[in-house]
Structure formats: structure tokens, C-alpha cells
Amino acid sequence: MAFRHPEDLPPGDAGLLPADAVIAVDGPAGSGKSSTARALAERFGLLYIDTGAMYRALTHAALAAGVDPADEAALAALLGPVDLALRPSGGETTVLWDGGDVSRVIRTPEVEAAVSQVSSHPEVRRLMVERQQALGRRGGVVMEGRDIGSVVFPLATAKIHLTATPEARARRRHLQFRQRGVEVDPVALAAELAARDRQDSERATSPLQISPDAIVIDSSDLSFEEQNELCARACLVNPTLDAAIDHDPDRARRELPPQYRLAYGVMGTIARFYGLKEYGNAGRPAPPGCILAANHISLWDPILVGATFRRSRVHSLAKAELFRPSWPMGRFLRWLDSIPIRRKGYDRNAFSEATAGLKRGANLLIFPEGTRQAIGHPGLVRSGLGILVQESRAPVTPIFLRGGYGRRCGGSLDSPLEIWYGPMLRWHAVDDLLLEMDRRVVSERIGQLCRAAWGELQARSYHQHPVTEFEKTLAEKQLRQFAARQARVFRQ
Fold first, then answer.
1. Helices 348-359 + 383-392 axis angle, to 10
2. Spatial distance between the Cα atoms of 241 and 308, rounded to a whole number of angstroms
3. Of 71, 110, 145, 426, which has the most beta carbons under 10 Å away?
4. Is the model's pTM score more than 0.85?
5. Helix (H) or strand (E) holding 206
């Protein structure tokens, strides 16, 4: 539920916030996200990145050059070669367009009126997101905008969705113009904000929406100081929860049943033989009641993922076909607490058993795409993940697999064998979303966030080891093959 007062959250320990933290602040126009993001950056010693100023700079340049804000291709061409830089300066952000300071001229009513249309174009947003991700991947930043938590940084350390009533936002925006010496009609300003809300929320690409793992803060009745204090406390919620996880590997190992020790040992030996590399999983036994959501590219995926668990007891959902009485695989999977699931339609028994296990504190491995996908192209996440999250509120750890093909002893340069763990996604905003939309749409939001998390982990993998020609060729072949299988399995 939305938080409305600093006392709604505990103060937290600022020392728990990592130095490379990424804090995402999203919200509608006039919600105060720029001022708050700037204050958070100063409070925690992080770099403030005003992504809205980047779109404003492009809008100003377009208006100055006579480019139609509706002309997507011309806007993309205008932005492409430009050196667009943001530099902190005395608590403010200096915006440089090809070296020229445009910090003041991007705050005019003319830019305000056109920026939403400029930022609605998919190609413009793609180019801007690339620049924003490059700025933020170094870590240690506070970034504000409208799609930071859902698109730009789905794995942000902390996500805040800042909102306020339309009346409160109109008053604040009017005051901002007056402080700059610009007189505007309050009624017209309120109408422009309402129109921008609609445009930002309804655009097809990266719309303004509440990320299901964001902490929602309603600042309508808060002073600026109270708003900043509440947001600062929100930044420390996830680090505080992470610090409470038991990381003792010896205790976790002692609690493992014998069959898990044997299975993890065998899978670990196979993974080491093929040169599996792990990232983001050092010394982290999964906390009780956590969903481990991995992308699916190969029949080897369960073995490779299982090789990285080692210290945690993990149940799994596996397709019902593997549990045929005549197949020894079915008995082996049952031995490891696997749950059979029908992939066509809603398997009530499987979801009930999995949800009950999560509530008892068991962990659960699932491949929520439902079937294998082409490498480098994570597929749509099916509704099962969202159903499990809504029923159990279990946090989700996204896991990205790369390189199940082209296996060689010691590893393959053509197909690097890697597993990337992301930070846990905790569903702070699911109750807020369920007040406004039905469960199916909430499941879609959860699935979109999981897929975006895989995309970010894939980008980190490709940054370290660029995609190979072998992978490109195989992906093109698989895209043709797997589309037909997807249609057959799910009757699409």
C-alpha cells in the first residue's frame, strides 16, 4: 500500500546501502521526483542523473531546429550523433548539448508542452535508454524518470514510485514556474499536466507505470523535508532485508538432505567439466520461500542451474511429460521434490502444491517461459510466475543462462557457458496494483519485469563476452524452429 508519512517505514541503516547502488525514482510530472532524487543523491553521496532533462534537451533542440515533435525519424537523426552530457554542479545538474549549456532553456513552457510527444517515440526512447544505461551501469547513481525501474534499470537496488494528487502536482509546478520568473495560467497548467499524464501512461513504448517491485509513496500531504525522509527510508528497505538473510554456508550445508547433496554434487561435477562460470551468486544460499526464475534455452538448463545451488533445498516445476510411469526421470525428479505441471491451460493442482511449498519456506525453481527459447532472445513470461507471486508474495531471483549449446571440456569460446544471478525482486507494489487492475494484468507486469531483468543480465554478459558468430547463427535458426513449437505447445 502507498506510504504517506515518514513514520510508515523504519529509519534503516544508511551504511547498508552499497556504494554501487542504483536508485530509481519514477513518477508523473509534478510529483517532485527531480527534487527528491537530487536530495537522495546528496544524502547518500551518489550521482544524480536527470533523465527527464535529456528528453527536454532533445525537445529544445528540435524546436530550435524546426523539427516536428511528431517526426520520429528526424528526432532520432538529431539525437544520434550529439554529445549529450549531464554534470553535477552545486546540487544542480548542468545539461550540455554538444558542449553548450542548455540547463535553463529546457525548462520553458514551450519545451514542457512538447516533451511528452517527443519522448513517446520508440526509437527516441531506445536511443535514450542506451545512453541512460551506459551512465548508470557504473553504479552509485540516483536516476529519475518514468521508466527507470521498469525498463532502464529493472535490477535497481531501490525503486520508488512517487505520486501525488493532480491538484498537488499542479500547485507545485505553478510554484516552480513562478520561482523562475515565468507566469503561467494555473488552469491551463493543470490541463497540460492531465494531458501529459494520459500521454505518458498510454504510449506503447515504456509507458509510465508502477513497477510491481517499487515502493509507492503518495506525497500529496507531505512537506518537502517529509517527502525526502520517507524516500530515504524507502531506499534502505531492500538492503535491510538483504542484510537479514542468513549467509552462513556451513549451516545451510548441514541442513541439506542427503539426496540434495548427492544431486548437487553430480550436477556441480558436470558443470565444472564444461567450464561453467557463475556471476552474482558468490556465497548466497537462497533465502527460504524464494522463487528462482531462469530463462530456458537448452535441455541442459536444469542441470546447469542445479549446479549453482549447492547449499539450498530447491523444489522445481517440471513439465508433466517427464513424469511418465515408465520413465526413470520421473522418479528422479520426484526424489528431488519436483512438481509435475501441465503446460496447456491452468494446472490448479501444480500451482497449489507449489504455492503451499513457498509458504512453508521451500524454494522453487521454474522456467517461466514454459518452453525453450532461441538463445539471446528471452521469451514472454507466461502467467504462471505472476500467479505464484500473487498467491505467495514470494520474492523472485532472476537467473540468466547462456551457452547451453556448443559445450566443450573446459568451456567454449563460441558459446560461453555462464549463469548470472540478479538481485531479488520483492513485490512491494503488488497490493497497490491489485487495487487498480485485475490479476491477469498484474501477472503481465510481473512477467514483464522478470523478462527485463533477464535482458539486463544478458546485457552484462554480452558486455563482458560479446555475442559470438556461433550464437548469432544458432539464434537465427532457433527463432524459426521455436516459433512453430511455441504455437504447438501453447496453441497460439
1. 40
2. 22
3. 145
4. yes
5. none
Cell of 9: 517505514
The DSSP H or E segment spanning 352 is helix 348-359
Helix (H, G, I), strand (E, B) or coil at 302: helix
Predicted confidence at residue 373, as pLDDT, reads 93
Mean pLDDT (whole number) for 5-31: 91
What is the DSSP secondary structure assignment for residue 184, as one 8-state letter? -
By CB atoms closer than 10 A (0-12, 13-18, 19+), residue 48 is buried
- What is the pLDDT of the chain when averaged over all its residues? 89
Q: Are β-strands 363-366 and 314-319 bridged in parallel, bridged antiparallel, or unpaired?
A: parallel
The more confident residue out of 231 and 140 is 231
pLDDT digits (tens, 9 = 90+) for 157-202: 999 999 999 888 888 888 888 887 777 888 888 888 888 888 777 7
C-alpha to C-alpha distance for 173 and 321, rounded to whole angstroms: 59
Q: Which burial class, exposed, middle or buried, applies to 108 when counting CB atoms under 10 A from its CB (0-12, 13-18, 19+)?
A: middle
User: Among candidates 285, 286, 407, 387, which has minimal Cα distance to 341?
Assistant: 387
The mean pLDDT of 294-301, rounded to a whole number, is 93
> Do the beta carbons of residue 457 and residue 317 sit within 8 Å?
no
Q: What letter represents residue 297's amino acid?
A: I
> Of the ranges 81-85, 344-348, 364-368, 457-461, which one carries the lowest mean pLDDT score?
344-348
Please give the Cα distance from 139 to 142 (Å, whole number): 9
Measured between alpha carbons, how far is 331 from 349 in angstroms, rounded to an integer? 19
Please say whether the beta carbons of 117 and 185 come within 8 A.
no
Q: Which cell goes with 483?
A: 516459433
Length of the chain, in residues: 492
Alpha-carbon separation of residue 421 from 223, 277, 294, 298 (angstroms): 39, 11, 9, 18
3-class DSSP state of 453: helix
Beta-strand relationship, 314-319 and 47-50? unpaired
Residues 322 and 43: their CA atoms lie apart, in Å, by: 54
Q: What order of strands is seen across the sheet that includes strand 92-97?
A: 84-89, 92-97, 100-101
Angle between helices 122-136 and 109-119 (to 10 degrees): 100
Residue 324 has pLDDT above 90, yes or no: no
Three-state secondary structure call for residue 401: strand
Is the pLDDT reported for residue 71 higher than 90?
yes
User: And the C-alpha cell for 439?
Assistant: 490479476
What does the pLDDT look like over 28-54, one tens digit per residue? 888 888 889 999 999 999 988 888 889
Cell numbers at residue 237, please?
528497505
Three cell numbers written together for 346: 491452468
| Cell numbers that stand for 82 in this block | 550529439
According to the model, what pLDDT value does residue 382 have?
92
Q: Cell numbers at residue 389, please?
A: 507471486
